[in-house]
Amino acid sequence: MEIERKRLAERLKEELGLSEKVYKAILKVPRHLFVPERYREDSYADIPLPIGYGQTISAPHMVAIMCELLDLKDGEKVLEIGTGSGYHAAVTAEIVGKKGKVLSIEYIPELAVEAEKNLKMLGYENVIVIVGDGSKGYEPEAPYDKIYVTAAAPDIPRPLIEQLKVGGKMVIPVGSMDQYLYVVEKDEKGIRKWNWGAVRFVPLRGEYGFKC
To answer: If we measure between CA atoms, which residue out of 78, 79, 98, 34 comes closest to residue 60?
Structure first.
């Protein structure tokens, strides 16, 4: 698996022009340990894979792109909405380092338990998994340097904007049939957002998500 992981990381670095910090994180995190056993042979294919409960682990290229768009830095506090199996949180944790912190909210309790087990097994002590409605963010630890959402929302949830630091950045997919990835930047005057391009994510659930 290590050879396949290296091959994937090198291909993404070449195709996407990855920064060294994102490349090293993709190279280090063992994606196959976040994938159900029956899909393990496809762990290092650049595709999303089912993880149960109607959810998926994102394709590695999308994880890398979101990390690059956020411009994650050592020591930052990051809020992840949608833990899934924990892979994206692990990649983020590698980039923000031991002085950083990743708070990850998962709507589905069973997935949260599995993700926490995966992350603890690999020694990610700077990731905290919380069961809850991620569309409302996580007020107790706000504000956050960076926020990213791994499911598509009907619109950018107001609580996430409020919990983002001034000077912070958020990446979030928005839309139903047609989805687009937005980069949101916050300053003293409010927010600016720009459309990175078309994407495909599972729908965000919760108060500010889709009713499903």
So the answer is: 34
Which of these, 178, 149, 184, lies nearest to 166 by C-alpha position? 184
Q: Which residues contact 88 (CB under 8 A, 6 or more apart)?
A: 58, 63, 66, 80, 148, 150
> Which domains does the chain show, CATH number per domain?
2-199 (3.40.50.150)
Residue 139 sits at φ, ψ, to 5 deg, of -60, -40
Distance CA 151, CA 34 (A): 18
Is the separation of the CB atoms in 52 and 113 below 8 Å? no
Chain-centroid distance, C-alpha 132: 16
Are residues 55 and 111 in contact, defined by beta-carbon separation less than 8 angstroms?
yes
Residue 104 · residue 130 · CB < 8 Å: yes
pLDDT value at residue 212: 61
**pLDDT value at position 47?**
97
> If pLDDT is split at 50, 70 and 90, which confidence band does 65 have?
very high
DSSP label of 133: -
**79-96 as b/e, with b when 16 or more CB fall inside 10 Å?**
bbbbbbbbbbbbbbbbbb
Instruction: Kindly state the helix (H) or strand (E) to which residue 8 belongs, with its residue range.
Output: helix 2-16
pTM above 0.85, yes or no: yes
Active centre residues (catalytic): 58
Query: Residue 132 has what DSSP assignment?
Result: S
